[in-house]
Amino acid sequence: MPKHQINPNNWVNQYSDYLFNYTITRVNDREIAQDLISETFLAGLKSMVNFKGEASERTWLISILKRKIIDHYRKINSNKGKAEVRMNYHNDTETEGDWLEERVSDASDKTAEDTLVNSEMGDAIYDCIAKLPQKQADVFKMKTILDYDTETICKELNITASNLWVIIHRARTGLAECMEKNWFN
Amino acid sequence: MKKSFLFITCDEAKHICDKAQYGEATAWEKAKLMLRIFYCHVTRTYSKKNTKLSETIASSKVQCLKTEERNKLQMALEKELSKQKQQ
Q: How many other C-beta atoms lie within 10 A of the C-beta of residue A117?
């Protein structure tokens, strides 16, 4: 019997945020990230029969997503894409060469190493969020990551404010413990 | 037992500490929390861990889908799933 089972009905609930965070750090565009995730799910559905169950569902989906991200960059780096960029920069003779200045690195820019650490930290946070009960995870993400106000969350999830704070407290305690074990140590 | 206007319980302190992470604690609540932190080891430890968690999440710049974005994904997936079932 395979070690892992596949269940597409749970994909959005269980993995969409993890996949989104993974993608957005690589493509830096919400719309494109969503499109790539959607394509990943559809490709996953089509190749479901090939899932052997040796890796977890999430690892399997990530491997599909990686291909999608590579394809995305291949597409925008095609000759057509490059030509469009060159045309934009060389059209105006007065400003010709300005692009060189634009390409000078900004001191406030994140280095590749910082981005990598952030991306790994993001993965660790999502690993810990995945261990929380669904409701705690949802409330925590809405309040902490999406920065929704208390009233909006209460309305959307039909809970009271005191209920929300109890859930937040439990989620934060669970997360702090998990992060302590898996990231800080 | 009569509730003190200055001294709070450990649970109240934790609650204020949680609210403070989202900028929702009042100045008076924060003052009461600071007082508790001064003499309560449990509150101090909780507050330290809680702040560290907030800082970690802020520095990671972690992101997630909005409810409507997630619903859109779910609908697209369900549509495709039902198509597959029909075949």
A: 14
